[in-house]
Write a structure and sequence with these properties.
By secondary structure, the chain is an alpha/beta fold. Helices cover 37% and strands 15% of the residues. It has helices spanning 11-22, 39-47, 67-71, 94-115, 148-167, 189-199, 218-230, 250-261, 285-291, 299-313; strands at 2-6, 26-31, 55-59, 76-79, 119-125, 171-176, 179-180, 203-205, 212-213, 216-217, 238-242, 248-249, 267-269. The structure holds nicotinamide-adenine-dinucleotide (NAD).
Length: 337
């Protein structure tokens, strides 16, 4: 397959690109290296990929890039570029969310239609559900986002659906539930918790202690995403949950990181953020039926891998012994995957 991955330098996009190349596919990555977080982290994410002949990077903004040229001969577009995060999407922060999540998505769908691209896989989010009436959430539940970010991700989904129903473009929207693992964005809770545990600085907790999240390991997300790109005969406009399926509270997460690091993590309570839902939880039965996908990596296993990756990327400020129920072979930790 000839694939295009938008957001190829980001957390999930770079992991997806590595796996596609590893499987023998050819990948054109598009990324504008936004400053939502330190762009040098993203440069590091693609450093190994750039050594591969099967990967080409187009450094461009989807808002004005010549997308029909980029998508020419591409079989599947994996559209992961976007402005993530709930907190920044309020007030003046909203405009870039509209640009990068709505306008950019419309340009991707339009160009894919013009080019006759075989499929567009769109990275949607559990945030489209908001505070749901019942859990776990099913794809046909009425989505009611609780943050401006969620509104923009849902708008992208609606665009994908209507390009499918009106213009016959084969689109699949995947609702990712809190993704974690190596390369996780530095502002996300697990990254921050691990840093807090390693440095002894307190973890700034912006959520209520009982806040529940359905965490999904990045390799599982990547496998679902590739399956969504390759599975034939999916109904155009299909929407699928991609959820780890074993939600944990913030308190459980803090304890787990402390246990894995063999160091208690100090917590500093912060005001709860507007737009943060109390709970996420997704039913992935449809993804199992249509894609043959199910999550394979537990929260504990995945967190241990994220910690191992963090320690391999940067030298730890203090000697830390990882305490895990699972034996981790360092030679098997995928630093660049
Ligand atoms: P990320 O910020 O690490 O990656 C996004 C990448 O897109 C960045 O490298 C950024 O530079 C690039 N980008 C943004 N706008 C662009 C534009 N207009 N043109 C070109 N490049 C652009 O984020 P991530 O965590 O890897 O998330 C990837 C996608 O998955 C996002 O669309 C996000 O909304 C969605 N998602 C992520 C999670 C999660 O837990 N990480 C959960 C649900 C949904």
């Amino acid at each position: 397959m000839r694939a295009c991955v938008t957001g190829a330098a980001g957390f999930i996009g770079s992991t997806l690109s590595c796996e596609l190349v590893r499987q023998g596919h050819t990948v054109t990555g598009v990324d504008s290296f936004t400053d939502y977080y330190d762009p040098s982290v993203k440069r590091e994410n693609v450093a190994d990929l750039l050594k591969s002949h099967a990967f080409e990077l187009v450094e461009a903004d989807l808002i004005d890039a010549p997308l029909p040229e980029v998508f020419a001969d591409v079989d599947v577009v994996f559209h992961l570029a976007g402005q993530p995060g709930v907190r920044g999407s309020w007030a003046n922060g909203f405009a870039p969310y509209v640009d990068l999540n709505v306008l950019a998505t419309q340009r991707v769908l339009e160009a894919a239609t013009v080019c006759g691209t075989g499929r567009v896989v769109y990275a949607s989010s559990s945030s489209v559900y908001g505070n749901a009436v019942a859990y776990p959430c099913h794809e046909d539940d009425l989505p009611r986002p609780y943050s401006p970010y969620g509104v923009t991700k849902l708008a992208g989904e609606h665009l994908a659906r209507l390009y499918a129903s009106n213009l016959g473009l084969s689109t699949v929207s995947l609702r990712y539930f809190t993704v974690f693992g190596p390369r996780q964005r530095p502002e996300m809770a697990m990254s921050q918790l691990i840093e807090a545990g390693l440095t002894g600085r307190p973890f700034p907790m912006f959520a209520a202690p009982g806040t529940l999240r359905d965490f999904t390991f990045v390799d599982d997300v990547v496998h679902a995403t590739i399956a969504a790109g390759l599975t034939p005969d999916l109904q155009p406009g299909t929407v699928l949950n991609v959820a780890g399926g074993a939600p944990a509270t913030m308190v459980e997460l803090i304890d787990l990181v402390g246990d894995l690091l063999d160091e208690p993590v100090l917590v500093q309570d912060q005001p709860v953020c507007a737009g943060d839902v109390l709970r996420t939880g997704g039913d992935s039965t449809r993804a199992r039926h249509l894609l043959g996908w199910k999550p394979a990596v537990s929260l504990r296993q995945g967190l241990a891998r994220q910690i191992e990756w963090r320690l391999l990327q940067h030298s730890a400020p203090t000697p830390i012994r990882i305490h895990s129920a699972h034996v981790i072979d360092l030679t098997e930790v995928e630093v660049s995957a």
